[in-house]
Amino acid sequence: MARARSVLIVGGGSAGNTLAILLANSGVSVDLVESRPDWGVLGSGILLHGNALRVLRDAGVWPQVRDAGFAFDSIGILAPDGTVVAEQPDLHSGGSDLPSTLGILRPALQQILIDAVRASGTRVRLGCTVEKLDDQGEGAEAVFSDGTASSYDLVVGCDGIYSTTRESIGVTDRPEPTGMGVWRTLVPRPAELVRTDLAYGGPCHIAGYSPMSDDLAYALLVVDWHERDEADPADYAERMCAESATYGGLWPTIRAHITDPAAVHYTAFHRLLVEGPWHRGRIALAGDAVHVCPPTLAQGVAMSLEDAAVVAELLSSRDVWDDALLTEYRDRRMPRVQTVVDGSMQLAQWLREGNRQAAPALIARILTALIERP
Ligand SMILES: Cc1cc2nc3c(=O)[nH]c(=O)nc-3n(C[C@H](O)[C@H](O)[C@H](O)COP(=O)(O)OP(=O)(O)OC[C@H]3O[C@@H](n4cnc5c(N)ncnc54)[C@H](O)[C@@H]3O)c2cc1C
């Protein structure tokens, strides 16, 4: 019997974990190294569109994701005073048998993926990084921070926006700040909050809230990024209350719960799109390691999961893992990822210019394009 082919995945976030599950389930021998000893995630909640849910279903975790999250099929557009201006049905980018959108706590999604990675037989090393990667033509050798070394048929760097795998293989593209950022926090879910409601404009570019579970909701304010605002996390609750002070709707209820500065996050938006090859020899990249966009379309996780799905499909269906396969992976992903990165940047730009009219049509066009499988 032929030996199982082997893959090393660097980074256990949404891309790395999903790739591990899909590959291990198709009979590939998978090692995964994750630098965080607790395998945890930072941040509060995320929105997943149908095209992300479709990959999670293929990975076998949809029932757990559905039960942990809060699904909905429309979006509310509000005036800054909270008046509902429009209620739009959201496109089902993962097909009509999945919700158009699901809010979920980041730690909940991570735990679901961790449980599935463990169940897949993937060998996991936590608190471990790759010190050196050596492409050897037919495979690659990795030297780990614990002093051990192993050879693999393929290495995939899923190590996020500041990927050291990207750096180690000589890809020189780096994430650039976009000049915008977001205040975010979790609050108890008001009973009437059952979908994303966004106000474009007012003192912030966007003021919005989304359900994340039966109990919790996520409130966000998109603003121009000022480094000085990062300076004093002790002020974060006060700042988020001040920035949202003139917004109506559910904001007064939400603001009453924004009291703990440690529960408020202030995060800058970045852009990255590696336009050249996404691999060197037998070392490839996926997820935020090769593309990052401001979350104006909430498609970052979805694009990372789709990368994992395409890599897994190609590796599990081909006898030969070579340069042509990895080029095909990048060429297949690029038009879709570029559409999302450019669209996210365009939306951010329009928000900064105060142009709110064009956004719904662009969002609908992009989500429609994503209905087709990647
Ligand atoms: C403010 C904000 C809001 C967002 N909201 C949304 C949203 O609503 N919906 C959405 O779809 N997307 C959203 N995104 C984007 C989304 O968070 C990312 O696109 C997604 O997390 C990328 O997944 P990834 O697995 O590629 O990278 P990551 O999630 O960053 O995972 C990388 C993993 O690699 C590990 N790692 C790093 N370096 C090493 C190393 N050297 N060795 C081993 N392990 C390493 C890290 O610890 C981490 O576990 C948002 C992003 C931001 C900044």
Automatic annotation (TrEMBL):
UniProt cross-references to Pfam families, sorted A to Z: FAD_binding_3
Keywords carried by this UniProt record: Monooxygenase, Oxidoreductase
PANTHER family (alphabetical): MONOOXYGENASE, PUTATIVE (AFU_ORTHOLOGUE AFUA_6G14510)-RELATED
Span of domain FAD-binding: 6-343
Name of protein: FAD-dependent monooxygenase
Species for this entry: Streptomyces cinnabarinus
GO molecular function, one term: monooxygenase activity
